[in-house]
Amino acid sequence: MRSMWIKVFALTLATLILLAANFLFIRLTQDRRAVQIEAPNPELLPPARSPDSLRLLTYNIAHGRGPRLGAANTEGGDAEEKRMRLESIGRRIGELGLDLVALQEVDFNTWWSHGMDQAEIIAKEAGFPYIVRQRNFDTGFSLFRRYDFGNVLLSRFPIVEAQKIEFPPMKDWENLLAGNHDGILARVRIGEDQDILVVAAHLEVRSEDIRVQATGEIIRIQRGSSLPMILLGDLNSTPPGFPDSRTTLSGQNAIEVLESFGGFQRRPARGQATWQDFTFPTEAPRRIIDWIMPDPNWTFMQYEVRRDFTESDHLPVMATLRFRR
Questions:
Q1: Among candidates 15, 53, 30, which has minimal Cα distance to 323?
Q2: DSSP string for residues in 37-57
Q3: What is the tens place of the pLDDT at every residue in 211-244?
Q4: Buried (b) or exposed (e) across 240-275, using 16+ Cβ within 10 A?
Q5: Which of 200, 213, 195, 206 is nearest to 136 (CA)?
Q6: Is 46:158 a contact under the CB 8 Å cutoff?
Q7: Residue 303 forms beta bridges with which residues?
Q8: Alpha-carbon span 184 to 314, nearest angstrom
Q9: Model pTM?
Q10: Count of Cβ atoms closer than 10 Å to residue 194 Cβ
Q11: d(CA 144, CA 228)
Q12: Ordered DSSP codes for 70-126
């Protein structure tokens, strides 16, 4: 009997050691996977002349689980149902004639989505040749309970380079063990003689203070470059005057900081929001947390919350921007 218990203990210990080693391997190699660009072969040439305007969309797809507020990531049906939902998102996006699309809460290899690459499914259905995957959370174990998801940027134009923007974490230990709400900084070539910077971000949901700190990093990047910039994503911040607005103890708000100190424009403009501008949740929306914010090099030609998308608990935001030459 004693011999049997020794064998059980040894097997258990060996299993725990293997799991710990697997976990550490994933975390220690995360930088290799932090940002990945998928491009067509051969790569596309940019237009000889950059377009006068760009058509953009940002959409938090909520891991493909569907529109129900508060649903767990494991909900939303089986693998086939989730795939059909993702294909529907891709087809709908493809019908809009977009140039750039930012997606948040996209699974690349996560257990609750049955290991499917949601970015690949949507990009294929929507017809986008360039995909940037940026992992916010990259942890777990290879054979089960893998957590691998984050932000995606889809582009019809060549993506020259892309890197991860590291925002301040809510908790250092969370960042160490799992990851953080970070962002993509991509240089996109929209013409032979014109590059732009695109920031696609998903900011921390739990703290306006952390969101304000993140805006400082975005503004630092903006001031360090002469290129036109567009910021889009789920910023999880609602400015004062709108329902569920939050501020720091010193009265700062992330959207207002971006507008006041970075010069980023927003729609709806201050004091002009109506219920049609709310982006969350999909059913009876009551908050504005999803944004497309261009710098002063651009002019809004069109801005719209697409209320006909019901595949997520967020509504997508679409805008057409004209470049000020």
A1: 53
A2: EE--SSPPPPPSS--SEEEEE
A3: 999 999 999 999 999 999 999 999 999 999 888 9
A4: eebeebbbbeeebbbbbbbbeebbbbbbbeeeebee
A5: 200
A6: yes
A7: 319
A8: 20
A9: 0.96
A10: 18
A11: 43
A12: T--TT-S-SHHHHHHHHHHHHHHHHTTT-SEEEEEEEESS-GGGTT--HHHHHHHHH
Cβ burial, residue 96 (10 Å; 0-12/13-18/19+)? middle
- Write the single-letter amino acid at 116: M
d(CA 150, CA 203): 11
Which residues on adjacent β-strands are paired with residue 188? 159, 196
pLDDT digits (tens, 9 = 90+) for 21-45: 999 999 999 999 999 999 999 999 9
Query: DSSP secondary structure string, 264-297?
Result: ---SSPTT---GGG--B-SSS--B--EEEEE-TT
Amino acid making up residue 190? I
Query: Can you read off the two tokens belonging to residue 239?
Result: 């400015």
